[in-house]
Amino acid sequence: MAFAAQGFERVPIVAEYNINTFARHVVTEQQDLHPSARGSFCWLLNGIELACKIIGEEVRRLGLSRAAGSTGTINVQGEEQQGLDIFANKVLMDCLGSRGNVGLLASEENEEPIVMIEHPEQGEYIVMFDPLDGSSNLDVNVSVGTIFSVYRRAGAHGKALVEEVLQTGRNQIAAGYALYGSSTVIVYTTGQGVHSFTLDPAVGTFVLSHSDMKMPAAGHIYSVNEAYADSFPPYCRRFLHWLKSSDEAYRLRYIGSLVADFHRTLLKGGIFMYPPTSFFPEGKLRLMYEANPIAFLAEQAGGMATNGTGAILDVVPGTLHQRVPLFVGSTQEMTKLRAFIDRPLKV
Ligand code: FDP
Predict the structure, then answer these.
(1) What is the DSSP letter of 224?
(2) pLDDT tens digits, 100-156
(3) In this structure, which of 11, 97, 120, 194 has its CB flanked by the most CB atoms within 10 Å?
């Protein structure tokens, strides 16, 4: 049944309490964009919201829960798995797999995409996620997050699964993250701006906290793991030197948890970088699970994201777990970086 036929009426917010919830916002946005839509996409995002509530609650109970600590297993990325990585992965698989419209799920924790619904007409969406980004910080109570990215399935009969999933970031129809920090927030975009919702623990609902967020055009913070600076490409080393000697008085902040570092960059501006290093010559961060959704959000908020040669969203993926260098931030700092990349010896 279409939205209009379901009798969704616009009712003004009259209560003193902010009741513009994530669910309401998503429905209203989709109603405006696609009046004949059947609510299927909203149901999908509702599954992500539910998963994030469950994961967030488990993160809050970390020291008490059985999911704490390392499992002693290594994931497809060659990283040590935490109990909560596995828990978060299962929760997302369950909440999304039960929607009835998600055909393919690809997780940073699984080697291959998982088929939920074979037929592209019923399983019309592909969802990719990093269930618990920054999880190596869990033992020390640092903020972590869940990153997600949604694509439409192109009805690719006969194509190998991986080929169906390997779309450029420009094809994303939604992306976002939950940040389990001093409060729990969901930040998302469907290409209609970036909106942020804070979990009200008293009622268990995400309520709108920032609408149509804009990244400041310039900031005073740079964020990078400078311990690796000796193995960064020369343009990065020179850019770092410029940041430190600039009259703009830049400060360094690096949490080591991408969602938290990006959230700060979104709100305060500046630049976040994970350049190629000798240990990770292609960069460390994953294109499909981390860089693409972050780049979609950044561009929607007026910022920029590049791998050093072009926009992240234009990178044609070769493999599911591909890594990329990531530079993301305000136009001023990104434009300056561009100058170092283009004219590495002059600037
Ligand atoms: P983690 O390994 O803890 O999951 O891609 C994963 C990530 O964290 C990002 O969240 C973070 O930005 C980055 O790795 C940190 O890497 P370094 O420790 O090499 O700085």
Answers:
(1) -
(2) 999 999 999 999 999 998 887 889 999 999 999 998 888 899 999 999 999 998 765
(3) 194
The string over 63-81, giving b where at least 16 C-beta atoms fall within 10 Å of a residue's C-beta and e elsewhere, is eeeebeeeeeeebebeeeb
CA of 20 relative to ligand 1 center, distance in Å: 33
Which of 139, 254, 258 to mutate for ligand 1's pocket (most ligand atoms within 8 Å of CB)? 258
On whether the CB atoms of residues 76 and 109 are closer than 8 A, the answer is yes
Tell me the pTM. Answer: 0.92
Which pair of tokens denotes residue 114?
């998982």
* Residue whose CA lies nearest to ligand 1 atom number 15: 256
Q: pLDDT tens across 224-258, in order?
A: 999 999 999 999 999 999 999 999 999 999 999 99
Q: Name residues contacting ligand 1 (CB within 6 A).
A: 133-137, 225, 256-258, 261, 284-285, 290
Give residue 223 CA to ligand 1 midpoint distance, Å.
12
Distance of alpha carbon 72 from alpha carbon 78, whole angstroms: 12
Ligand 1, atom 19, lies closest to the CA of: 225
Cα–ligand 1 centroid distance for 127 (angstroms): 22
* 106 backbone φψ class: left, alpha, beta (φ>0; ψ -120 to 50): beta
Q: Which of 132, 277, 284 to mutate to test the pocket of ligand 1 (most atoms within 8 A of CB)?
A: 284
Alpha-carbon span 48 to 188, nearest angstrom: 11
Cα separation of 300 and 317, whole Å? 21
Protein residue whose Cα sits closest to atom 13 of ligand 1: 256
CA 286/CA 43 separation, integer angstroms? 27
Cβ atoms within 10 A of the Cβ of 244, count? 12
Distances (CA, A) of 176 to 136, 147, 233: 21, 6, 30
Phi-psi region of 329 (alpha: psi -120 to 50; beta: other; left: phi over 0): left
